[in-house]
Amino acid sequence: MSDANNTPLTLVVLVKHVPDVQFDRHISQDSLRLDRSESVLSELDEYAVEAALAIVEDNGGFAAGHQVIAATVGPSSSANSVRKALQMGASSGLHLNDDAIAGSDTVATSKALAALVSHVPNVDLVLTGMASTDAETSVIAAQLAERLGFAQLTHAQSVEFDAAQREVTIHREHGDQRLTLKAALPAVLSVTDQANNPRYPNFKGIMAAKKKSIEEVDLAAVGLSAAEVGTEGSTTSVLAADKRPSREAGTIITDSGEAGIALVDFLAEQKLI
Amino acid sequence: MSSALVFFSHVSTVPSKAQRELLTLASRFENPTVAIASVPGEEALKVFGSYGIATVLQAENPQASFGTHELSVLDAALQHTDADLVLLENDSFSRELGARIAVRRNAAIVTDVIDVSADLIATKDELAGGYSASVKSATGVLIATVKPNSIEDAPLDCQDSVEVKNLELAAPLVPAVSIVAADQKEASDRPALSEARIVVAGGRGVDGDFSAVEDLADALGAAIGASRAATDAGWISHDAQIGQTGVTVSPQLYISAGISGAIQQKAGMQTSKFIVAVNKDMDAPVFEIADLGIVGDLAKVLPQAAAEIRRRQA
Ligand SMILES: Cc1cc2nc3c(=O)[nH]c(=O)nc-3n(C[C@H](O)[C@H](O)[C@H](O)COP(=O)(O)OP(=O)(O)OC[C@H]3O[C@@H](n4cnc5c(N)ncnc54)[C@H](O)[C@@H]3O)c2cc1C
Ligand SMILES: Nc1ncnc2c1ncn2[C@@H]1O[C@H](COP(=O)(O)O)[C@@H](O)[C@H]1O
């Protein structure tokens, strides 16, 4: 066997700064863009951070020279989500921040993310969440695999990483099948909320994160021009975004022994049976 | 007028309800064509014909590398047809195929679509159904993944014969993902969750016992769903999970039993036409969105409702 086992791993975890799902979220009628105040690290990206940290811990820890780089594309406030990933245990941060990126759709965002990943030398694995909790498109991982020419392993419910063979094996669901899939590095891996239990940043992690660096880069630094991203570099154009009338509470009854009948009366009234 | 291409990874003996919705939508455009990454049977072809599909492009799946064949078929079919509207199912696998092709061909990919107009403007759900947005392609081709239960299934009154062509596929360009093992899930007689007309869902409140939920689902011919608390507890398969990280449903009727209605659960069901909630806690958030809320014990209410439905139908 080669000494591949000893080669330090470079893992890039993509983290997105998104409006907190616990609050009311709004799309501005002027810009047709999401109001991004009150944003946090996308909850589903914590599973990707955890998966990356677990891979490092199973392979000699950070002492072995491995890197987990938390990377984001977004405005200045997005650094807060990178910071949270550093508190969880990522080793450094990378932040592509450029005004020209505002308004990017998935095709343009994946272009920016691919350029950002390529800015890091010798990446072995790119990890993402199963979906961003704002756009909820679940397409970025596949688009990155396409752009980077990496193997695509998505929607992993569990992950086995073999550093010696430089392979990743995952379990995922696919229609009426449960699959075990395997690919060689480099790969793009998206993980679901079934994959692990993300750790909380503890006091030690929070203190350690203060000393970790976040490299901020602009488009020029990753070799992109303004026209390749933003609305100009996007393939979709949003014409309108209308708030649906919020659902209202209907009739509420308390069961006094006949509620099952009332339920059926309701179904009959609404012609559902 | 635009021409439409519908892509299916696979079609069973006959197309599923969600697939027929895509065929209905395609039939509103010119040259509606179907591409399949496997070989459809005679019966499926007949169904395609009834939606005015003139051409079916097919290519047998060698089952070599995961996802590679489907990607090649979609790419080749798009090249072959020059369609400017591509319709896909809304599951994660289909979305990802569409997303890769969008990158490859500088096309627009739009997910969670509920309709596409004659001038190729897609209407889609945003923020878990809180908003409805109109989106168009800025580059010409629109790739839309369409949510089940969005389009009224309407075959045309025609029985055209369908021309079947084998697609020539170029060697795939993507790194291999090998299929180490494939286990078939247990088949169920109930309707598929994502496209069911009625869903009965149970949460932590069923306390390990889904029989009352199953009984009511049987009486209604409904699919069975669950909250993450119930699937995490192992009371029911993860496939049944409804919500942000599970299946999104838009049925005519959603009956929620013993589910509190957390934001992540609502994200997967709040576009249902009617919501009925049974919960013993009158302050449960699910009551804020229920058309009928019943404060009560699901172990009493559900069996009584199931018995009453059977009595009325007898
Ligand atoms: C990243 C992430 C993703 C998530 N994704 C999802 C998702 O996709 N889907 C999802 O559902 N959740 C999801 N969750 C979990 C979600 O936040 C809630 O924890 C979960 O939905 C709670 O399930 P529950 O309502 O069954 O349980 P609980 O919140 O415990 O509620 C149980 C309810 O049952 C009622 N009850 C108890 N006994 C009875 C009885 N006999 N009769 C009637 N009522 C009774 C109680 O009053 C209570 O309201 C996610 C969470 C995270 C962090
Ligand atoms: N702007 C971004 N910055 C960093 N990561 C992102 C960004 N957008 C998407 N991602 C990653 O891609 C995943 C899927 O996002 P999406 O396709 O938008 O649902 C997310 O869970 C993130 O890991």
TrEMBL record, chain A:
User: What are the entry keywords?
Assistant: Electron transport, Transport
The cellular component terms of Gene Ontology attached to this UniProt record, alphabetical and capped at eight, are: cytosol
Return the InterPro entries for the record: ETF_a/b_N (IPR014730), ETF_b (IPR012255), ETF_beta_N (IPR033948), Rossmann-like_a/b/a_fold (IPR014729)
What the entry lists under SUPFAM superfamilies is as follows: Adenine nucleotide alpha hydrolases-like
Q: Where's the Electron transfer flavoprotein alpha/beta-subunit N-terminal domain?
A: 31-226
Q: Which GO terms describe its molecular function?
A: electron transfer activity
Does the record carry Electron transport as a key word?
yes
Co-factor requirement: FAD
Q: What does this protein do?
A: The electron transfer flavoprotein serves as a specific electron acceptor for other dehydrogenases. It transfers the electrons to the main respiratory chain via ETF-ubiquinone oxidoreductase (ETF dehydrogenase).
Q: Which family does it belong to?
A: Belongs to the ETF beta-subunit/FixA family.
Q: How does it assemble?
A: Heterodimer of an alpha and a beta subunit.
Q: What is this protein called?
A: Electron transfer flavoprotein subunit beta
* Native organism: Glutamicibacter uratoxydans (Arthrobacter uratoxydans)
Automatic annotation (TrEMBL), chain B:
Cofactor names from the entry are: FAD
Q: Which residues bind FAD?
A: R204, S227, R228, Q241, I242, G243, Q244, T245, N279
Q: Which domain of life is it from?
A: Bacteria
User: Which molecular function terms from Gene Ontology are attached?
Assistant: electron transfer activity; flavin adenine dinucleotide binding
GO biological-process terms attached to the record: fatty acid beta-oxidation using acyl-CoA dehydrogenase
Note on cofactor: Binds 1 FAD per dimer.
Instruction: List, alphabetically, the Gene3D superfamilies matched.
Output: HUPs, TPP-binding domain
Which keywords appear in this protein's UniProt record, sorted alphabetically? FAD, Flavoprotein
**Is Flavoprotein tagged as a keyword?**
yes
The keyword rRNA-binding appears for this protein: no
Return the SMART domains for the record.
ETF
Q: Which residues form the Electron transfer flavoprotein alpha/beta-subunit N-terminal domain?
A: 4-182
* InterPro entries in UniProt: DHS-like_NAD/FAD-binding_dom, ETF_a/b_N, ETF_a/FixB, ETF_asu_C, Rossmann-like_a/b/a_fold
Q: How does it assemble?
A: Heterodimer of an alpha and a beta subunit.
Q: Sum up the protein's function in the record's words.
A: The electron transfer flavoprotein serves as a specific electron acceptor for other dehydrogenases. It transfers the electrons to the main respiratory chain via ETF-ubiquinone oxidoreductase (ETF dehydrogenase).
So what family is this one in?
Belongs to the ETF alpha-subunit/FixB family.
Q: What is this protein called?
A: Electron transfer flavoprotein subunit alpha
Source species of the chain: Glutamicibacter uratoxydans
